[in-house]
């Protein structure tokens, strides 16, 4: 699995699946979550409502992942994961790593070949960008080193600024 980091808008990524840094309600929000919901169109909210009704009535737990179609996005799939919120005392790096691991488990079930990740838990969830980069790149390397990678050829971190992308690139 090739791991890269680029500056860009994840809603425009030409990959099979993008990862949404969702909140546990799956009903949209700010930042990456809001941008993905806006770009995917209103059908995404309907799909998330159905996931809540049928699979996660109490909300998606931190570190787990679930998929919906991408609707109006270039990506066929959106994989939603809830990052740990440092403001709520969720400061264990393993919770953040689990977001990547769980998202890739879902991606393998969907048989995607390429996937794009944002900087999960950075920003509103209070994690330092360098720590997010270290944890997520480390988790991606663990996945890439697995003997059987099940078809995921590319994991791309798509980050909204050059400085953030550089932090990821330096670790890759």
TrEMBL record:
Macro domain segment(s): 1-172
Protein's name in the database: O-acetyl-ADP-ribose deacetylase (Regulator of RNase III), contains Macro domain
Coiled coil: none
Pfam families in the record: Macro (PF01661)
Organism in which the protein naturally occurs: Bowdeniella nasicola
CDD domains membership: Macro_OAADPr_deacetylase (cd02908)
InterPro entries in the record: Macro_dom, Macro_dom-like
């Amino acid at each position: 699995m090739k791991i890269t980091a680029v500056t860009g808008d994840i809603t425009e990524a030409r990959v099979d699946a993008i990862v949404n840094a969702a909140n546990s309600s799956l009903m949209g929000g700010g930042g990456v979550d809001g941008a993905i919901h806006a770009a995917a169109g209103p059908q995404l909210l309907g799909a998330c409502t159905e996931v809540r009704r049928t699979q996660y009535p109490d909300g998606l737990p931190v570190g787990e992942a679930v998929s919906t179609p991408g609707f109006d996005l270039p990506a066929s799939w959106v994989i939603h994961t809830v990052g740990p919120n440092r403001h709520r005392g969720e400061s264990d790096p393993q919770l953040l790593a689990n977001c990547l691991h769980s998202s890739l488990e879902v991606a393998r079930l969907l048989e995607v070949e390429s996937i794009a990740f944002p900087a999960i838990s950075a920003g509103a969830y209070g994690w330092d960008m360098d720590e997010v980069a270290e944890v997520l790149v480390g988790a991606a390397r663990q996945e890439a080193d697995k003997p059987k990678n099940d078809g995921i050829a590319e994991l791309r971190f798509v980050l909204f600024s050059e400085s953030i992308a550089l932090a990821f690139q330096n670790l890759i």
